[in-house]
Amino acid sequence: MLSIALLSRSMGEAALAHALIVLSFMAAAGPLTVLGFDTALLRARGARSLIVPLARRFALVWSVIAGLMGIAAVSFVPGDWLAAWLGVRPLLLVAWLALVAAQSFLSALLLALGRCRCALLFGGTLSSGVVCLAIAIFPAAGTGLSGLAAAQLAGLGLSIAAGMAVVRRAMAEAGPARPLSPNWGDIASGALTNAVAVVAGQLPLWMVAALGTQSQTVDLGLAMRLVLPLGFVLVAARAMAAPVLATARSGGWPAQAGGALCRIARVAALASVTMALCIVVLARPVTEALFARVPADAALLIGLLGVGSCLQAAIGPGQLALRIAGGEAEALVIAAGLLAGLAVGAGVGFLILGPAGVALAASTHLALGSAIPAWRFTRRSGVRLGAVGPCA
Length: 392
Hints:
Blueprint: H1 2-10, H2 13-27, H3 29-33, H4 37-43, H5 51-75, H6 79-86, H7 90-112, H8 116-137, H9 145-172, H10 184-211, H11 214-226, H12 228-250, H13 256-281, H14 283-291, H15 298-315, H16 318-324, H17 328-353, H18 355-381
Helix pairs in contact: 2-10, 2-11, 4-7, 4-10, 5-7, 7-8, 7-9, 8-9, 8-12, 10-11, 10-17, 10-18, 11-15, 12-13, 12-15, 13-15, 15-18, 16-17, 16-18, 17-18
Protein name: Membrane protein involved in the export of O-antigen and teichoic acid
Transmembrane segments: 15-37, 58-79, 91-113, 120-141, 147-167, 187-206, 226-246, 267-286, 298-320, 332-352
Keywords: Membrane, Transmembrane, Transmembrane helix
């Protein structure tokens, strides 16, 4: 939010629209670069010694990916064109992606080891804090993407180093490792599901950028950034639910798991509704204060996006639950089908209602993206997700 606010004050509308698109790709990097290993780690929670082989395989895979990307950036990619479009050098982008992958893996690993607070702290909170501190100390860092990239690299490096120290202490309690033959099919399905989810999360902005004007792109982009606090609630709820789901899976899905998941969903739903109402009411003064501009139909766009986030919080982490329960392939099929529906709905909605139609399609996708997997998870495990009904 601070980065966007500083960029909005120092850039024109065309440059800001471009920056919002680039930053949307940056926001998508975490779930994409973890390559499906996040769910594999959570499913290994009942046998912590399985974590070490998974970590070695992830490091090997990303060493190959980073090496190939580095060679391509130096030898084959038109570096000047890419640097001009991104605002950073290609090799800096490769280093940033590798560090984001390591941070995302560490966050999932800490969740698998039962360190929920550390997973949130070292999964992006600390690195974002370093970026904000760098911008506060060196204001020039917030005036362009290259300065933000340097601050991001510093924050990621510190977050990974601190996270590794916690992981070493946690692994000392997990016992010796034993050989593992991971199910690469599940990991591949998880990677594809993460990729589909990433595209779905950013597709509304990309759709408006392709079909609309720069002003409409800025309006929707700023509205999406204003509802980020609701995303924080969803991330926290997911972090709280993940150990419950993993433990329940290893214990044969006891009935008590449903009560714990219900309570988490109720707290998340209450927090989301409260925050959404506050954001809608304060949309105009906040956008004027932070961004020195007011998006057209700000309250409508924020309200539509907020409804989807609130419904997702109340329904619970359906896709995560289905994947932990062993339904990786099923989760992928559902996510791909919903992505196709989102693309059609966003296109039609934009032609009829403009950015508000895209926001409505995104809100519907958020709700269905949790509801359908949650229903399939309940059919598979007998454990109910969501805040509706008694939390027995």
